[in-house]
Specification:
This protein has helices spanning about 5-25, 30-50, 55-75, 80-95, 100-120, 130-160. It has one domain (about 5-160). α1 runs antiparallel to α2 and α2 (about 30-50) packs parallel to α4. The chain is mostly helical.
Length: about 160
C-alpha cells in the first residue's frame, strides 16, 4: 500500500465485503446501512486525499450498480437491490477494476449454479443462491488484480 489512506480504503472495502457475505448467506439481505456507511467512507477518504478521483469513482459506481440494477429489475426473484448497491459501492472503491470484479462474480456464480444443476437437476432452480459472496470474491480479485487486468485488456484489446 502506498499510503495509510489507501490502506484504510482497502480495509474498509474488505470489511464491507465480509459483512455483506455473512449477512447475505444468513438472511439473504445486504443491509442498506452497510452499503450506505461503506459508500460514505469511500467518498470521505477520496475527498480528503484524492478529490480528482471522485469522478472516476462515481462513474464506476454508477456503471456497476446500474448493471446489477438492470439484472435485478429483469429478474427480481434472482437478484436483489442489495446486490446492486454492493456493486455500486465496489465501484467507488475499485474504480475501473470493478469491471473484472463483476466478471469474476458472474463467472463464479455461474460455475456454482451449473454445479447445482448437475447435482440436483431441475430441482436446482428452486434453490436460492445468494450473490453477495460472489460479489465479495470478485471484489477481492478486483482489489488485488483488477488494475493489472484492466491494463492488460487496454493494451491487448483496445490498443491492438
Amino acid at each position: 500500500m502506498s499510503s495509510p489512506w489507501e490502506t484504510a480504503l482497502v480495509l474498509a472495502l474488505l470489511a464491507t465485503l465480509v459483512a455483506a457475505s455473512i449477512t447475505d448467506l444468513r438472511s439473504r439481505v445486504i443491509p442498506n446501512g452497510l452499503t450506505s456507511a461503506s459508500a460514505a467512507v469511500a467518498l470521505l477518504i477520496a475527498t480528503l486525499t484524492d478529490p480528482a478521483s471522485l469522478g472516476p469513482r462515481a462513474l464506476a459506481g454508477l456503471a456497476a450498480g446500474g448493471l446489477l440494477l438492470l439484472v435485478a429489475l429483469a429478474h427480481p426473484e434472482g437478484m436483489g437491490m442489495g446486490d446492486a448497491k454492493l456493486a455500486a459501492v465496489m465501484g467507488l472503491y475499485l474504480r475501473a477494476a470493478v469491471a473484472p470484479a463483476l466478471l469474476v462474480a458472474f463467472a463464479s456464480g455461474a460455475v456454482v449454479g451449473l454445479a447445482m444443476i448437475a447435482r440436483y437437476g431441475p430441482l436446482a432452480r428452486k434453490r436460492a443462491l445468494p450473490f453477495g459472496p460472489f460479489l465479495a470474491l470478485g471484489g477481492v480479485i478486483g482489489l488485488w488484480f483488477g488494475r493489472d487486468l484492466v491494463g492488460w485488456y487496454a493494451d491487448a484489446v483496445l490498443r491492438g
